[in-house]
Specification:
Strand 1 and strand 2 form a beta hairpin. The strands form 2 sheets. A 7-stranded antiparallel beta sheet has the order 3-4-5-6-9-8-7, with helices on both faces. It has one domain. It is an alpha+beta fold.
Length: 230
């Protein structure tokens, strides 16, 4: 009995390995970008500048974001244009933890969900059979909230294929599960800290403006006092 079970498990494992494409890509990679890469590495690969990186929070962790739009090469035919519209790279403490890829609508027009799943499976292997995670709801209602239609998982990395509910456009999200959990916790803490310190920051801002106004008024008074002729 034990021997039959062992043979059955071995057969299933063999079938799973056979179904995985030879040379399947690392799930944490997309083109030349890799999850956990440094901010500097992503900047270099995109050709962006450091000033293009937006700082969202500086504490308790450094949370940054870079939005990148691949450039279209001159004199290329329409069919040669990049299918990617934008990629938003998210970083925590100078480590890439998420890539959000939006595709050009004109390059995915007419493609079905099955077409997209087949295309991605040819690169990353079979999709996960586990139920797709529920996408986090935005802070406000949106007609274009994406719906997860397929998921791939491998180690710490997860890839989701999404389709907007209203527009029908496709997108990918590639994430480090561990780093995203840290980023979510850091963001929640940062929001709490900002809210707690908001009154003190507002009071400091008001005082700074008042001091600047008094200094400007005193400068004007001094200038006019020295040059005034009755």
């Amino acid at each position: 009995m034990l021997s039959r079970c062992f043979r059955r498990v071995t057969l299933v494992a063999t079938l799973l390995l056979a179904s995985w494409p030879v040379g399947a890509a690392d799930l944490g990679s997309y083109r030349q970008f890799t999850i956990r890469a440094s901010t500097a590495d992503v900047i270099a690969r995109t050709g962006a500048a450091e000033r293009d990186v937006k700082t969202l929070h500086e504490r308790p962790a450094l949370l940054q974001e870079l939005s990148w739009r691949p450039r279209y090469a001159i004199n290329r035919n329409f069919g040669d244009r990049d299918s990617v519209a934008t990629i938003v790279f998210s970083f925590i403490d100078n480590q890439l933890f998420r890539m959000a890829i939006d595709y050009e609508r004109t390059r995915t027009e007419g493609l079905t969900k099955e077409d997209m799943i087949t295309s991605l499976s040819a690169i990353y292997g079979p999709r996960s059979t586990q139920p797709a995670p529920t996408a986090s709801r935005p802070a406000f209602d949106s007609l274009d909230t994406p719906t997860v239609i397929a998921t791939w998982r491998q180690g710490d990395a997860t890839l989701t294929l999404n389709q907007s509910a209203y527009g029908g456009g496709f997108s990918l999200t590639i994430t480090s599960i561990a780093l995203e959990a840290l980023a979510r916790k850091a963001q929640a803490t940062a929001v709490t800290m900002d809210a707690r310190e908001a009154p003190a920051r507002e009071a400091a801002r008001v005082k700074e403006q008042a001091d600047a106004a008094r200094a400007a008024a005193e400068k004007t008074r001094t200038t006019n006092k020295d040059t005034f002729k009755p």
